[in-house]
Each structure stands twice: as C-alpha cells, then as structure tokens.
C-alpha cells in the first residue's frame, strides 16, 4: 500500500517537473495535424525539430526510441510516433489524446473533400494544386531527412562518419533497399538492430550462456451506407492497419488491391484522386482511408475506415511502449535501437527518392522542388505552410494559364 502511494507520488512529482502540460502537447499535435504537410518523412522531422530541438520537451533518446518502436510496429509511421510521444510522459491518456488530435484535422478535411467530390464529380483543380504542392513537398521532406540524418547518425565529417561507419552502412542499405523495393523492410531494421547490438554491446546472456534468462519482446452521400459494406470496410482497413509496416506510401498498394481489385469499390481514377487528396492535405498520408471510406459508404464509412486503420497501431504502440521504455536503458538495447534507427532513417531517405521520382517529372516541378529546398536552407524562419500555399498557386497557374 505504502509502495503504491510512493510510486504515485513520484509519478505526480515527475509530471510537475515537466516543461509542458498534456494540454500543450495535445494542442501541438492538433496544430501539426492541421498544418503538417509532406507525409511521414516530413512529419517525423517536424516532431524532432519542434519537440526535441526547439521546445526540448523530449530528449534525443526518447525520440529515437519512439521512432524505432514506430517502425517495428505495424501501421502509419507518423501516427505511431505521435502516439508514443504522448505516452512517454503522460501514459495511456497522453497517447489517446495526441493520437486523436493528430488525426482529427486531416480527417475532417478529407470528409469535406469527399462531400465536394460526390457533389461535383471531379478534382481537376486539385490535380493542378498537387502538381505544384507535390514538387514543393520533395524539397521540404529532403530537408527533414537531412536533419534527421546528421542528428541521429553523425555529422557529415570524415572523422564522425568513420567512427560511425557501421551505422552509415545500415543507413545506405536502408536507402538502397527502399528505392529498389519501394517499401520499408521490417526484417532489415531488425537485422541491423541485432547486428549493431552484437558488435557494440552483446547482452550478458550471449557472453555467458549459462545465465540465459531472457524473454522475447514480442447529396453528398453523407449518410449513404450499407451495413454489410461497413463490416467489409472495417475488416479490410483493420488488416491494412495491422499488416502494413512503415510510411503511408507502403499502404497504398495494399489499399489499391482491395478497394479497386478485390471489392471494386472505386475505379482506378477515383483511387488516384483519393491518393491525391491525402497528399495535398496535412497530417498522415494514411488519412486517405477516410476519403475512400466516404466515397464507399458516406460519413459512417469514413469513420469506420479511419478507426479500423489507426486502432491497430494505437494498440501495438501502447502495449509495447511500457516494456520498450524500461529495457531501453540497457546498453545492449541502446545499441539495438541505434542500429534500427540508422536503417529506419535510411529507409525514410529512400522514400524521399521514391516520391521524388514520381513527382518530379518536368522542368517546372524540378524548379519548384529546388526552390522550396533553397528557401528552407536560406530563410531560417520560413514556415512550411507558406511554401505549400505558394506552390499550390503556382501549380494552378501553370495548369490553367
């Protein structure tokens, strides 16, 4: 009894010493969900810049642990990291509030766009906007990937790179495999983590097998829906959330096979429009499931699709986080996390290349991407939404004028 009281008092003391409140954290993720453009690479970069570098609400170690756990568990990367960040100091309530706050703004946006799509039957203007926005996003996420690289692996100096040569090898391997396969490989991340752990800090049960005692961490159609369709939506999107690892890009082929090929809910053109909606709205790219759900079964379909997709990653994160955080103090586990982080960031850079190859297809998109990157390098306090807005206007001008 006394032990529980002491533990509770220590918990309250810890919270009282934090430099931020749960309300402030929730508001931050609400804003990030409303203004955070660029997909998973950019979003995790924003979280690092804002919460680690600027606000100092989290340490580098806490952030890297969250990034590694987010990559190991299934579901959308940025949402998982946000949920973990909420969990770090505020437990289950923090994870729940940050997750909802992060997803809600973009969910509302895609539902509104779904209503407009049903009413007006096309998104030609949106394709024009995406022409400019998609190119600018490449510059934004390239800068985010660079910052993550020098912070989590080492600076681009020969002495630093030589001392961290194995991490750089994992990093480059992650880039190459992601570019070739166009998806993140979970087994690669685990292999890099185990290899680095064995090289840098082999666990005691490896060095002394007789002491083995380890466990495994293991009009607009707003209300048009059919009950059976909702059930199919729920099961399908739950599978998408539970079995697809990595960034929002990784889920697109899975969704295409289901909603177009298997169920025939959308045409090819409608599916492409759905992905475009996700890419030009802020927040997680995976929120395209809300738009797809709306087209299939109205607002109930959007709710079921979004809930089913994000619920598995929420459950995995809050279940694994307590054990992950406790054992992360172990030097062997730290080495494991470092190895995974190097491969994860390499995979994120690989995703930048994949997106770039799809988005940069002429002289105009090349110029927009280069200009966006240059603006972020030379105008230190420039905010990304301003770049997105200018790029959208340029896209409209190029396509219609």
Can you describe what's shown?
This protein has 401 residues and is mostly helical. Helix content is 80%, strand content 0%. The protein has 17 helices and no strands. α3 (39-54) crosses α6 and α11 (227-243) packs antiparallel against α12 (248-262). The protein is globular.
Characterize this entry briefly.
The protein has 401 residues and is mostly helical. Helices cover 80% and strands 0% of the residues.
Distance between the termini: 74 Å
Structural class: mainly alpha
Backbone CA Rg: 22 Å
Please report the total strand number as a whole number: 0
Low-confidence stretches: 1-14, 209-220
Q: Strand fraction band?
A: under 5%
Which sheet architecture does the biggest sheet show?
none
**Helix and strand sequence:** HHHHHHHHHHHHHHHHH
Average residue pLDDT: 79
Helix content: over 70%
Shape: globular
What's the number of helices? 17
Structure keywords:
401 residues; globular; mainly alpha
Write the layout of secondary structure elements.
Blueprint: H1 2-16, H2 22-35, H3 39-54, H4 60-72, H5 77-120, H6 124-152, H7 158-163, H8 165-181, H9 186-200, H10 204-207, H11 227-243, H12 248-262, H13 268-280, H14 288-327, H15 331-359, H16 363-378, H17 384-400
Helix pairs in contact: 2-5, 3-5, 3-6, 4-5, 4-14, 4-15, 5-14, 6-13, 6-15, 6-16, 6-17, 8-9, 8-15, 9-15, 11-12, 11-14, 13-14, 16-17
